[in-house]
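Dear colleague,

Thank you for sharing your sequence with our group. We've completed the structure prediction you requested, and as agreed, I am returning the results in plain text so they can be pasted directly into your records. Please verify that the sequence below matches your submission; if there's any discrepancy, let me know and we will rerun it promptly.
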Amino acid sequence: MRRGTVVEAVHHVHARSTAGGAFGDDLTCFLRSSLKPIQAVPLVEAYDDLGDDELAIACASHQAEPGQLEAARKLLARARASVDDLENGTQEGRPEGKLGHNCSGKHAGMLAACRANGWPLHPYRDLAHPLQQRVAQLVGPSETAVDGCGVPTFSMQLTCMGALFLTTPARIADAMRARPELVGGQGADDTDLMRALPGWFAKRGAEGLFCAGDGDEAWVLKVEDGASRALRPALGAIFGIDEFRAVPITNSLGEVVGSLSA
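Please find the predicted structure tokens below.
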């Protein structure tokens, strides 16, 4: 990160491709929200009439934009559940309480999967619940912890994350490609990458994690210090996306005073 001509900060980005590409180290970290396409598998296994909007929002870290909230409500209606049934919390500055949480689509999808399978609706976020046991089976042996929205998350090396990301069912990947605006939203790295690279599907995660795949190859990026702002220029360098390569730094007046580049 340069302000003027001075380097003010440096972020180390580690990356691995299932095709053998490598930068930095094969770090071990938690999948966080990049796991959402796998966490949506019990949902897609339970229904054969899901819309692209329902699957995309189930994979989303959304920004509570109107279309995103509408898609989350649609999944809740499928689950015959209410906002009160969501086991995520609230986020400051977000509208509509728990529905406005960036993981509400995932949680609504989990409720819908429970409804279809006849599993108890609560506590669906418990690792011992049949829903989470199915997700754990899909992930394989891993150390677990609790994610920011309360559900289990799993750790593994970046190379293993890429292999897991490629197991995303085609129906889920296709829905993410079809509705990228629901997966992230305005200005989100995963939404913008899917628009810039037709055929790829992508999901960002907390602490500077990013997974992208095209069905044959997957890339996983991890910013060592967790600063997600470093992802876009790193993605630009890896994928050759010119508009990602340099991210302007602006001040409170809207003036460009520096840039992020890889």
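Summary note from our side: Residues 104-117 form the longest helix (14 residues).

Kind regards,
the structure core
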